[in-house]
Amino acid sequence: MTVSRSLVLLIDGTALAYQSFYALQDLKSPEGRPTGAVFGFYQTLTQLRNEYSPELIAVAMDRGTPVERTETYSDYKADRPPTPTDLLDQLALIEEVLGILGIAVVSSEGIEADDILATIALHAAGEGYDVFIFSPDKDMLQVVNGHIKVIRRHGNNTKIYDQQAVQERYGCPPERFADLLGLMGDSVDNIPGFLGLERKQRHPCSRNSGLSMLFMRISTGLQNRD
Q1: For domain 7-161, which CATH number applies: 3.40.50.1010, 3.40.50.150, 3.40.640.10, 3.30.470.20?
Q2: Mean predicted lDDT score pLDDT of the chain
Q3: What pTM value is reported for the model?
Q4: In contact, 114 and 140? CB cutoff 8 Å
């Protein structure tokens, strides 16, 4: 007999607030106060609760500068503009609304929301829960396993990434996804890829690939540049 596991829904609150803000930038209260981020956030939260009926929900928020990453790589996210003032005002209101709803908001100074989500997801899965992570950040795909899935939404299109979906989309299992990102780089975070590889070559992390295959492809890429 298979015992069903309760569901935990984790939300990248900062990413959802940004998406809602830019999608509904013209939405304002009768007093002229921008409200698009708050409205869009609450609307999406309600949709997720109705669709997946989670037992527990937590929202992770960015807080401050990601010190560890910027110390390691000073250009990390260096090309991003500052958060718009109209959005900053709404972030505080979003957290206030979540508090009224009884939904936990988790943050820590200098720690990014996706790191918090990954930590909670792995802990919850280990405690016997199934976990859905709602986040547009492809970095989250590296924590996908038999009990953790990632929900990514682009416009009206929603896709749930389990282990098979990650493999089919990227040619790479979740446990090797960090290797793939290390080679490809990430323009969103201003992280360059490995210059010796063309994009079509940057798929060395299939289940049957080892370090020898990885280095062989890097060597081939470098030779092709000469």
Answers
A1: 3.40.50.1010
A2: 81
A3: 0.80
A4: yes
